[in-house]
Amino acid sequence: xxxxxxxxxxxxxxxxxxxxxxxxxxxxxxxxxxxxxxxxxxxxxxxxxxxxxxxxxxxxxxxxxxxxxxxxxxxxxxxxxxxxxxxxxxxxxxxxxxxxxxxxxxxxxxxxxxxxxxxxxxxxxxxxxxxxxxxxxxxxxxxxxxxxxxxxxxxxxxxxxxxxxxxxxxxxxxxxxxxxxxxxxxxxxxxxxxxxxxxxxxxxxxxxxxxxxxxxxxxxxxxxxxxxxxxxxxxxxxxxxxxxxxxxxxxxxxxxxxxxxx
Length: 262
Known about the structure:
The protein has 262 residues and is α/β, with parallel strands linked by helices. It folds into two domains: 2-50 and 187-261, Rossmann fold, CATH 3.40.50.1000; 90-184, Rossmann fold, CATH 3.40.50.1000. It is 33% helix and 20% strand. The strands form four sheets. The chain has a seven-stranded mixed sheet, sandwiched between helices. Strands 8-7-9-10-13 form a five-stranded parallel sheet, with helices on both faces. Strands 3-4 form a two-stranded antiparallel ribbon.
């Protein structure tokens, strides 16, 4: 474990999901113990993910299948953060959404009308079956004045057969056709972290972020004023850290090293 000298009391925790708690559907050693310790200590916590395909209920079931017990209300997705953002921007607005149940359910529950007719927003999320027809519709609606929002900037997503194009890749295609850049709500936008803190009534000075990526989890946590823990069980390797002009507060081998800190 390496760290910078400044330490502060932690009352709440935010943690990434893939690469921190699970890897390819299997729990990372120590992850069930970490979540159990948070619950036993009564610590407010949220599991954050840029995955906008699944609802929080779906993700709870997937985590449970790997042996990690996370309540539905403790899961915060980029789709939920996007819906929260839009409900604040234009309450009761309308959107043309490209995505799956995680996104469309979140928008519906935020009071949004899903429509192809003169929507306030085009909202792009992740799906495993991007439709050329839907992308064409999105391009024409943006050209007609709809504002462009995307759940997250990830350019690829994992599958058993290899990487799939994800939200960031399709957003780039739409931008090339329209000249309009989307506003990305998910990580590394600190807005996702601020909305997460609001949900758990947390404060940046006493909240920690656990992530496996320097370019999303650590930088966003740092910009939101959180203590940051980088785990080496996911995307970022120890040798990669020096490539970045910022540092995490702490670097640990895995989430198992954090159980005693809860």
